[in-house]
Amino acid sequence: MSGYNIEKWQNILELYNNLIILEYSPIVALNRTYALSKVKGKQEAIVEAEKLNLSDNHFYFSLLGNLYSNYDNKTALQHYKTAFGLAKSISDKNSIRKNIQQLDLR
């Protein structure tokens, strides 16, 4: 990742850190975790994401699927399948289906 991208994601992470201090919400924490993965890596982000335990949220499981991809594809696939089952909209299901198909190709 280029220096500009790292700096960009560090700034985004800092903004999320500030937002969480001002007004915590699980979705802000979830989005912060994605930014954290860009700055500190997937392993650290997985630890933080799993603390959230948003077991009824398809975005949570989609994020976990993303974080586990290319690290533990079997676990990533499980998370994507859970996300697919929880997703309500056709567009969300289609997006998750694409992620599952990409994992199956690896």
Question: Can you offer a commentary on this structure?
Answer:
This protein is an all-alpha fold and 106 residues long. It has 2 domains: 1-52, no CATH class; 54-106. The chain has 6 helices and no strands. It has helices at 3-22, 26-40, 42-52, 58-68, 73-86, 90-104. α2 (26-40) packs antiparallel against α3 and α5 (73-86) packs antiparallel against α6 (90-104). The radius of gyration is 14 Å and the shape is globular. The model has no long low-confidence stretch (mean pLDDT 94).
Low-confidence stretches: none
Give the overall form.
Answer: globular
Sheet having the most strands: none
Q: Report the span from N to C terminus.
A: 22 Å
Number of strands: 0
Q: Based on helices, strands and strand pairing, what is the structural class?
A: mainly alpha
List the helices and strands and how they pair.
Blueprint: H1 3-22, H2 26-40, H3 42-52, H4 58-68, H5 73-86, H6 90-104
Helix pairs in contact: 1-2, 2-3, 3-4, 4-5, 5-6
Concise description?
The chain is built from 6 helices and no strands.
Pick out its properties.
106 residues; mainly alpha; 6 helices; globular
